[in-house]
Amino acid sequence: MRQRGGVILLGQLNIEGKDKIQVAIDRLQMFEPTEGYYLAFSGGKDSEVIKELAIMAGVKFDAHHNHTTIDPPELVRHIRENHKDVKIHYPEKTMWQLIEKQLMPPTRLVRYCCSELKEKGGNGRFVITGVRWAESAKRKNIRKMVEFDTYGSQSKHQKKQREIFLMSDNEEKRKMIENCQAKGKHVINPIVDWTEKDVWDFIKLRKINYCKLYDEGYKRLGCIGCPMSGKKGMKKDFKRFPKYYENYLKAFKRMLKQRNLKGLPTSWETPEQVMEWWINGQ
Fold it and tell me: Residue 221 carries which DSSP code?
């Protein structure tokens, strides 16, 4: 066991002889901004971990949750009942209104819902996220560990990138901080190199209360009907949450009406046909 700031750390998550918990805490402490971190909290298991780590690290932070209007009810209740310190932000338009406005359902390629419902907030702040490479091979290629300070006033070839590599990281020089120039915010992913087992071991170690949907077989908690979960995931969602299935059909009906009013071509005649294409045809 090691102790820092009065907090006892139990070194039970190790990689290459290093305590993963301490490494994550060191990362958070190393880059703590004066105004504190903006902690992006979804209510899922990874969010539970980064929030607990921030508390253990003793860093200043404020936690925020973007309510998507299509979050599982159990997840919404979990956040409201167990994380009263988390500030909940509500969108200007619900998913149902966005579908009508965009004149099409969101797809794997056209993910307007993410930018409108999930990714807002934290502009000008240093954001903590629970992104992990183990969630997908694509994330390991795209999501970096240290990446910031590219000077926007210079040309593409003149921009200078400053990279910081932590002594605790291995020879792959895994990066954990990202720079988002468009939104003027930096992002730190302190558990980017944690595995699924690491996450659950930490939750058990710290006796963290998590959303009960995981005990029903859910591996990840996201928006109900998200096309990124694939055909199988969408069908599972709609079987588990039939009211949301009906709400999507109602939104598709209004969407088709708007398409007809605007004279837009479509092969869909009914909301059910839109749903069939959305689940099986895209």
Answer: -
Dist. CA 154–CA 160, nearest whole Å:
9
Q: Which residues contact 58 (CB under 8 A, 6 or more apart)?
A: 4, 5, 7, 29
Query: Where does the chain hold its CATH 3.40.50.620 domain(s)?
Result: 2-219
User: Would you give per-residue pLDDT tens digits along the chain (282 residues)?
Assistant: 333 333 434 445 664 456 899 999 999 999 999 999 999 999 999 999 999 999 999 999 999 999 999 999 999 999 999 999 999 999 999 999 999 999 999 998 899 998 889 888 888 899 999 999 887 555 455 444 434 544 343 344 334 343 444 433 433 333 556 666 556 778 899 999 999 999 999 999 999 999 999 999 998 898 999 999 999 999 999 999 999 999 999 999 999 999 999 999 889 999 999 999 999 986
CATH code of 2-219, in short, is 3.40.50.620
Contact 193, 174 (CB under 8 A): yes
